[in-house]
Amino acid sequence: MGTGHSIVSCFIFDHNGDLLLLKRHRDDWGGGLWATPAGSIEPGEVPELAVRREVEEETGLILDAVEFLGTHDITMPHGFAQMRSFKATVHQPRPIVLRADEHEDWRWFPLATLLEQPDIIWGTPSVLRDFGLIPSFEIDPTLIDGSSATRLD
How far is CA 63 from CA 123, 143, 151, in A? Predict the structure, then answer.
């Protein structure tokens, strides 16, 4: 498995089924890439509370409910993380308030066009596919650099 850290990630969908992605700050790892709200689990923190905290810190959204999807090992050019993924739906439009030190932009992405979008962070399409949220496909364009996303449960 390697040495990495435990992170949480939240796939947030709107009433149309579009996925909220945040553009990572250019000076951070994965800078310029579009990613789900995500972050580290603090020592002793329950993953569901960690994902709610990260979403609120990064977007200003307070989620009504989150659903645990499963866990992946994600290997990227700069390291490794074990990612616990959650899903949430925002039924009413709500303002997104970004932390300027973490993200530069936000956008709702139609799932049907996700594989054609440039600059999506490592493994996002594979994780969505593994949880049945998008149809199967042959090649994840976000992993062509040798990165990987392996489902654990």
Answer: 24, 30, 25
